[in-house]
Amino acid sequence: MDNSENRLVDVFFYGLYMDEEILLKKGVKIRNQRKAYVKDFVLRVGKMATLLRAEQKEAHGLVYELTHKEIDILYKDSGLIEYVGEAILLHVENKSITALVCNLLVPPLKDDKNEQYVEKLLVCMNKYKLPLPTEYQLNKKG
Q1: Inside any domain, residue 3
Q2: pTM greater than the 0.85 cutoff
C-alpha cells in the first residue's frame, strides 16, 4: 500500500470534469478511467453541478485515479471551495467500490439554472456513451 504523496484515490466525476481533455488542461494525468454509477442520487445542475440524494434514481459518470494534489488542483486551486469531498459507493464493472466524490453541501435553489453547462455536459456524456439524466433529456433541444 502506497503511503506517499503519490498514492492514488478513486474519484467519481459526474460533471464536466468527466472530460479527460479538461482534466489534462488542468494538469491531471489520466489514469484508470471507468464508467460508473451511483444509486439513490440524481444530478442537479444549478449555477454549479452536484449530486442530490433521491431514492430509486441513478447518476452516471466516470471514475479516475487521482493524487491528492490533483484533487486540490481541481477544487481548491480552481476556486471551487463550496465542494466538499465524501465517500460514495459506486457500481463499476459489475462490482461495488468506494470512491471520493465532491458535492455541494448547500444544494442549488430550484430556480437556479445553467443551460450552457447542461449543454456542454450532455455533449460530454454522449462522448463517453453515458446514459443521459432523464431530467435533462427532456430539456434537450433538437
Answers
A1: no
A2: yes
